[in-house]
Design goal:
- There is one protein chain.
- The protein is mostly helical and about 100 residues long.
- The protein has one domain.
- Helix content is about 50%, strand content about 5%.
- It contains five helices and two strands; from the N terminus they run H-H-H-E-E-H-H.
- It has a two-stranded antiparallel sheet.
């Protein structure tokens, strides 16, 4: 699949991860830390990033792990960790924070 198409399809999850990186939340940081520990042991962790300068990345999907691990609606393409909520639930949660 074309990498730009993947980025476009996952744009809401990418934005969620970027937002959660900028606006830190204790729970999200705990989730990101646990996910990162799993990713650190994975042979697919690398630098094949869809967007240059966002390493480390998942070599399978091209996502920046800094953002992907902070997106509660994202999951590991290898099934090593799962989404904790849907994108719709994440949007509702974000609206409660405002």
């Amino acid at each position: 699949m074309n990498i730009l198409k993947k980025i476009w399809e996952n744009r809401s999850q990418i934005l969620e991860g970027i937002t959660n990186t900028i606006i830190r939340d204790e729970l999200i940081e705990k989730v990101a830390k646990n996910r990162s520990l799993i990713c650190d042991k994975c042979s697919d962790k690398g630098t094949k990033c869809a967007v240059k300068g966002t390493a480390p990345c998942c070599n399978l999907c091209g996502c920046s792990l800094t953002f992907k691990t902070r997106s509660l609606s994202s999951d590991c393409p290898e099934g090593k960790w799962e989404a904790l909520m849907s994108e719709e639930e994440e949007d509702k949660l974000d609206n409660l924070k405002d």
